[in-house]
Design goal:
The chain is about 55% helix and about 5% strand. The protein is of the alpha+beta class.
Length: about 210
């Protein structure tokens, strides 16, 4: 397999963590989003949206959208599973994952922040305020959900990393770029620390990638 990604992309971090947890190897192909590398005709032929990550399978099939790819991984390589056994538990994990993937990430990814700067003249301070506002809006609810549930264990759901942990881990790394204060979120911080002690997540972290700068 070939992993088309960018070291600092949180969606790419998600997929790297999932691959590592599954014990799967993929050739690392890095694209610098800052210089428009994913807008080349060659990359757009793989992924017309010009986004990362994309996972190119051995037969040439290209999978896109990190959550869809991770769920494909869980179906194609079910051990270890990234979703719990029961329908109710799976719904909880998916809800937590979607709080990050559907609420925070769409407002805080690079193309949105770039648009704020180039179209509306937002400076670095304003962009950081925008980023932090939307993180805090969701993290407050995420923290309450984790802290108030007996289903929360060492990780977001029980004592085995799930899709929710993958999304949270990647977002916390993204937050560090803007110095988001995590002290109001002790449960999130505890879960992140536990995840960051696992080799699969350490290997997925942005600073560990060959294109990190």
């Amino acid at each position: 397999m070939k992993l088309h990604n960018y070291f600092r992309s949180s969606t790419s971090t998600r997929l790297r963590a999932a691959l590592n947890l599954k014990g799967l190897d993929a050739d690392y192909l890095g694209y610098d989003l800052r210089d428009g590398a994913t807008r080349s005709p060659e990359y757009l032929a793989l992924n017309p949206a010009g986004l990362v990550p994309s996972l190119e399978l051995d037969d040439g099939t290209v999978l896109v959208q990190s959550i869809a790819i991770i769920e494909w991984l869980d179906e194609a390589h079910p051990t270890p599973t990234l979703l719990p056994e029961t329908a109710n538990a799976r719904a909880r994990v998916r809800a937590l994952a979607n709080m990050i993937a559907c609420e925070v990430h769409p407002l805080n990814n690079l193309r949105v922040l770039t648009y704020l700067k180039t179209t509306f003249g937002a400076d670095d301070t304003a962009i950081a305020q925008w980023f932090t506002h939307w993180v805090n809006t969701t993290f407050s609810a995420f923290e309450t959900t984790l802290a108030g549930s007996a289903q929360t264990g060492l990780y977001c759901h029980g004592d085995t990393p799930t899709l929710a942990d993958i999304c949270l881990y990647a977002q916390v790394w993204n937050n560090r770029r803007f110095n988001v204060n995590l002290s109001p979120y002790p449960t999130i911080s505890r879960v992140f620390t536990a995840l960051d002690a696992l080799p699969a997540f350490q290997k997925a972290a942005p600073p560990s990638q060959p294109d990190a700068d």
